[in-house]
Write a structure and sequence with these properties.
Layout (H helix, E strand, L loop, with lengths): L18 E10 L4 E3 L14 E5 L10 E5 L4 E4 L4 E3 L10 E3 L8 E7 L8 E10 L18
Parallel strand pairs: 1-9
Antiparallel strand pairs: 2-7, 3-4, 3-8, 4-5, 6-7, 8-9
């Protein structure tokens, strides 16, 4: 298995009202980590509000919300480390965690508020932030040891 420097994604296409668990996003401490989330926008009346929260998706809204959007712009943001950098009006509501920390590991809920009863699109993402595994010695460090 090989290691991607930024993050590894598993993409799953969702139908409205579906809940998907077991998506894993793996990132490294100090890097920006993007947790993917998209919904289908056919025309501008399909643009809708959504939220990201810590923990599994509850029956409505987001528990421990970290960011909200009305579909066009971010309306509530609990930390500048949580950002939506995609084109919201195109349905790209992926969450970027800036300068990730180990404490950012856990379950994140992406809830897109689709009009109608029980139509919301819910995704629970598992995020794992690891310490960087590769440490590079500074160019001024030399070693005379040899390994056979």
């Amino acid at each position: 298995s090989f290691h991607l420097p930024c993050a590894q994604y598993l993409f799953v296409f969702l139908s409205p009202g579906s809940t998907v668990s077991g998506l894993a996003v793996i990132g490294e401490v100090g890097q920006n980590v993007t947790v993917p989330c998209h919904y289908n926008v056919q025309h501008s009346n399909g643009i809708t509000s959504m939220c990201w929260g810590r923990g599994r998706c509850p029956t409505s809204k987001c528990s421990q919300p970290i960011i909200w959007t009305d579909g066009w712009r971010v309306t509530e943001q609990h930390s500048s480390r949580y950002q939506l950098q995609g084109q919201l009006w195109m349905g790209d509501v992926s969450l970027t965690i800036v300068n990730a920390r180990e404490a950012d590991s856990g379950i994140y809920c992406c809830r897109v508020e689709i009009p109608g009863l029980f139509n919301d699109q819910l995704t629970n993402h598992k995020v794992v932030i690891q310490k960087a595994r590769i440490t590079t010695a500074s160019p001024h460090t030399y070693t005379s040891e040899q390994t056979s």
